Amino acid sequence: MTAITPPTVEDRSASRADGAYRERRDRGDRQLLARYHRTGDRRDRDAIVERFMPLARRLAGRYNRRPDSLDDLTQVAALALVKAVDRFDPTRGIAFSSYAVPTIVGEIKRHFRDHAWAVRPPRALAERALRVEGMVRQFTGENHRAPTVAELCERTELTEEEVLDALHAARAASASSLDAPVSKQDDGATSLGERLGSDDDGYDIAEQRVLLEGLLRGVSPRDREILHMRYFEDMTQAEIGEVFGVSQMQVSRLVRNSIERMQIVAEAQADRELVAMSASG
Q1: Which of 59, 72, 162, 204 holds its CA 20 to 30 A away from the CA of 272?
Q2: Is there a single domain that holds both residue 34 and residue 94?
């Protein structure tokens, strides 16, 4: 059995000294707060705010999730501290810190709920996501590992589906820039935007080519060649007439007749597709 060493005289004296110091400090805080609420002197409020700003910074750091958001959270915590000073009732006989901490934490959580989402989910889901995320931090700090979904369900009294939805929604709290590099290559950084797909007009062109090939089956080989020269090789009607030994007027008539036949085939095909859709419906 390990022997318990009783506190020495010096330890008891230091403990009494620390307790006396805290008592004097708390009494001074209450007096300063009482005087501020009695006189409204902003210098007294500034003194109280300066006195408790380290507390506000610690709370902001505790709830900070990204390095770039600490300044914003510190500002939220500072404003909450000012509100706590203005709303505190010195006559209740409680320590100011007991009132300031839940006030600051509440403002920080409200900030997360209302302003810290890149894609804002419904309010109930946002609050559940913050609740689950807080439990994840608490569990990790206690057990030095991430919790399982089942353990989160047990601690939050939520269903597995609700926990999974909350974890998924928490990803919407931040967004990555499309210009942010995702990999390093020999030719420089590759951004996320460069990996995203875009509209490809090639699909429309391919569909048009398939349609055109089907329509050209109703045109004679000579007329197909004339159309190819006219619209793909951009030859004039006179130049085409010299190749086939006909006049420009005849070339014009052949092109017009070929296009009319293709239009008739296209309309007949559209009618067949409409009838097939009506029959299947």
Answers
A1: 204
A2: yes
Q: Record the pTM.
A: 0.46
Q: Is residue 57 part of a domain?
A: yes
Domain span at residue 137 reads 118-174
- Residue with the bigger pLDDT between 190 and 220: it is 220
What pLDDT, in 10s, does the model give residues 94-125?
A: 888 889 999 999 898 888 777 766 667 777 88
| Cβ atoms of residues 129 and 169 within 8 Å | yes
Whether the pLDDT of residue 52 is over 90: the answer is: yes
Q: Is 78 left (phi over 0), alpha (psi -120 to 50) or beta?
A: alpha
Supply 154's token pair: 């047990």
Question: What's the total number of domains in the chain?
Answer: 3
Contact 84, 103 (CB under 8 A): yes
Give the SS3 label for residue 241: helix
Helix (H) or strand (E) holding 189: strand 188-191
Within 8 A by CB and 6+ apart from 70, the residues are 60, 61, 64
> For residues 190 and 183, what is the distance between their CA atoms, to the nearest angstrom?
6
Helical H segments across the chain, by residue range: 9-39, 42-63, 70-87, 96-115, 123-143, 149-156, 160-170, 192-195, 202-216, 221-231, 237-244, 248-280
Residue 206 in domain: yes
pLDDT band at 13 (very low <50, low <70, confident <90, very high): very low
> Which of 11-20, 64-73, 88-97, 165-174 ranks highest by mean pLDDT?
88-97
Least confident of 9-13, 51-55, 215-219: 9-13
Q: Are residues 94 and 141 in the same domain?
A: no
Residue type, 74: T
User: Do 85 and 36 form a contact (C-beta atoms < 8 A)?
Assistant: yes
Bridge partners, residue 80, by sequence: none
